[in-house]
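Aim 2 progress update. The chain analyzed this quarter is reproduced below.
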Amino acid sequence: MRILNFTLCILPGLFLPMAAMAQSAESTLKKIAETGTVTLGYREAEPPFSYKTPDGKIVGFSVDLCNRVIAGIKQRLKLDNLKVEYVLATPATRFILVKNGKVDIECAATTNNAERRKVVAFSYPHFQTATQFVTRREDGIETLDDLAGRSVASASGTVNIDQLNFINREKKLNIGVMPTKTNEESFKLVVSGRASAFVMDGILLAAMVAETKDPSKYRLSEETLSKPEPYGLMIRHGDDEFKSLVNATLKEIFTSPDIETLYAKWFTSSIPPDGMNLNLPMTPALRDAFADPKDYLQ
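Predicted structure tokens:
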């Protein structure tokens, strides 16, 4: 009887977390079907992945991928029309927006790592980049060691600021880390000379430099603060049905000629609103990732 009582006492404890987990992971497809609306998270200024043009359009490589996912959702739910609602998601707010259901898919440039996968889920990778830093050429800064004792900016809520803090401690560089709310704030600190460097994903730094009036004034570091890591479209944790649909749509794009067209549109062509061209051909590593899409679990 003691064993039986113990078992009966312990079983509810085992099932409750599972029930709570199922309840929190509401079916995204069910929610979309009931509301007739899909919510996409976007960035205000994260070209070429996700940004808002002066005329109010939400565009970018990640946004185009999400639009293709929407077509897949309409087909799965047999809907002729589906309202798209855009929600601004900053580095600091993006995870809570996805977790609490305010955003169904975050269409931006968010790094997939093990810590983040504890609270959200990610699609197959759609890009790879490493953490670098940008400086003004006139300051003569080339390496991390050159940043010793200087002020360095990075956006809160990013893996980049965590990497900067770790290296700062490990190498005892005595860097004054300046957290900001957005990437734009960090870059402005470098432009004005109030910060010696801005630490962020290399591709995003390259895009911000390319948008300036005189890109030659800035230097993108060759040294990296991380190994290359993937971006993924961010979705709710535990919703395997929705994740499967997102990944199936992406796989169809990645393994067809469509990905060459989409990539060229955003990375090797002039993009709105001012015709910036990153001139960034697809790397062999990214081409391999597209050819055989799979979950990133490192």
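Residues 113 and 129 are 13 Å apart (CA to CA). Residues 2-24 form the longest helix (23 residues). These observations will guide the mutagenesis experiments scheduled for the next reporting period.
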